[in-house]
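Fig. S4 source data, part A: sequence.
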Amino acid sequence: MPMSSPDSNVELVRTSFEAFNANDIDSCLAVLAPDFVMHLAELPEPLRGRDTWREGVELMNAAFPDLHAQIEDITAAEDRVAARLTLSGTHTGEYLGFPPTGRTVKYVSREFYRVADGLIAEEWICSDTASLFQQLS
């Protein structure tokens, strides 16, 4: 299959965030490659698979049911897409040991994606978790 264009890769990532914001997890999973790999800045080893991605989203949704990702910047070159996001939501459930606060939180994330055969094959997430944790303390 020919390599997709940078513009189509941006549209793929943009569309996946629209599905994420609509809490349409099945549509998000449909654009992930079967051998999807997720790299989180906080973890020494990558996480693998669609089910692992779903578990992470379910964890976030349980703590921040109105979580919204706003794309501030997005660009692509070849098979890579880079996005700068602002995430916001209300902390109404336990999150990583933080009991619900009822506070609205807002933090930034820089995310990078590799697209292969029209699917998101890999992502790197560099979120400002220090800012998030400070808001939850």
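Fig. S4 source data, part B ends here. The CA atoms of residues 38 and 44 lie 11 Å apart.
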